[in-house]
Amino acid sequence: MDQTLPVASTADLAAEIAPLARRYKRANGPVIRLVNRLGGTLEHQLSALPQGVRNQLEKLTAQALEASYGIASRAPDLGTRAPMMAAVAAGAAGGAGGLATAVAELPVTVTLFLNTIRSVAREAGLDPDEDWVRAECLQVFAAGSPLAQDDGVNTSFLASRLALTGSTAQNLIRTIAPRLAAVLGQKLAAQAVPVIGAVSGAALNAAFLSYYREIARVRFELVKLGRVHGAEAVEAEFRLAVTPPKVIRA
Q1: How far is it, in rounded angstroms, from Cα 14 to Cα 238?
Q2: Residue 6: exposed, middle, or buried by beta-carbon count in 10 A (0-12, 13-18, 19+)?
Q3: Residue ranges in 192-230 assigned as alpha helix (H)
Q4: Cβ neighbours of residue 238 closer than 8 Å, sequence gap 6 or more
Q5: Alpha-carbon torsion, ordered 160, 162, 167, 172, to 10 deg
Q6: Band (139; pLDDT cuts 50, 70, 90)
Q7: pTM for the whole thing?
Q8: What are phi and psi of 158, to 5 degrees?
Q9: Which residues contact 105 (CB under 8 A, 6 or more apart)?
């Protein structure tokens, strides 16, 4: 008796990816859309930050990622609502004192983001303590960003389920830090004004956490589809669904 499993068709793959592509496109909520409309204003505020802070932003982000990477793996699953409440509280506290408290709040916020991403991995049936899943959790921060100027779609899966040693984790964090730093820089700029910054920090933390949670849900579903159809086929189909080729009219 032939026990060969049926091969999933390209049409099946396209049908499964279409809702994920729509979800990816809808990830930017109203707060993030407002941030993008105010992009010029925030860029001006960012340029007004002390040069030392701007120079150190990428380094601070990498340090926050490294710290949160260790903490999040030991933290309990906070569920669905608790991370959002904690992110709002942290953003408000960070913005209440202006730039100094906003910078101090970065590791807390990044840890909350990463904890939420790990929870999504768990919901998808993955073990967030497996090395390759931990790497995929970090990769969520590189899978596009909520900023309008970032039109890239980074859906690349890790070619091999590598064992994350301290050095490979640091290398991965170094590649992710610049993209996340661009996002956090906008947040710092909005939080730099005391009191008003508290409102901005709370709103942006909530918006960014929602964004990364949605991106994580899409990414882990793509990972699962990759097991059936192959990672390359899934990545190619998703890119096509998110950024269809332009039609050149005669």
Answers
A1: 8
A2: exposed
A3: 196-229
A4: 17, 20, 21, 153, 155, 222
A5: 50
A6: confident
A7: 0.82
A8: -65, 130
A9: 90, 91, 93, 94, 191, 201
